[in-house]
Amino acid sequence: EAGVTQFPSHSVIEKGQTVTLRCDPISGHDNLYWYRRVMGKEIKFLLHFVKESKQDESGMPNNRFLAERTGGTYSTLKVQPAELEDSGVYFCASSQDGRPNTEAFFGQGTRLTVV
Amino acid sequence: SQKIEQNSEALNIQEGKTATLTCNYTNYSPAYLQWYRQDPGRGPVFLLLIRENEKEKRKERLKVTFDTTLKQSLFHITASQPADSATYLCALVTLISNFGNEKLTFGTGTRLTIIP
Predict the structure, then answer these.
(1) Scanning every residue of chain B, which has its alpha carbon at the shortest distance from the alpha carbon of A41?
(2) What CATH number is given to the structural domain containing B41?
(3) Domain span holding position B104
(4) How many structural domains are present in chain B?
């Protein structure tokens, strides 16, 4: 069974450009999460989808970030326009039922560098 | 303010010894605490989960304790091996709604190196 897959693995863009990250969760997992780790800091929650609905987007840093999950399958995270402080590793995770005692499966991450 | 601290940024342990990692938190009331392993260039991988009413959990060479009075979790790897070298992350789960809050709040991690 395929795990959580993220594309691309690396992205280098200039300040002001737009970047779209994609996450394919494990098939059948209704719950999808985005996290981010900026240099030297801990991994921080961005948002949580249940199917195609945003359950919690309290961690989204500002309105330059837009997450979508059309059809409740894969998800995209768009940063527009990108700023230098957006650099970091963006992780996607999925879980089957979203209960707090449920294991979350993480993707390998997308390393975003804004120059 | 809320804070999760893991004892040290890096820890070196001789092969065969027990590695003990610490996770301390303040101003949280977690219902669950999870431990993850992360290798370079990879995402975190779930290892163990312990509930607030559990004192100890074991899985093979791994043991986790959870003391809600001390606000601390200890993560032990017995008979450590070089393959155990990785960054270990603790993560809290706090319940804030009837739906449950599945979001994880991570510590900064401890980079463990097992020396042959």
Answers:
(1) B108
(2) 2.60.40.10
(3) 3-115
(4) 1
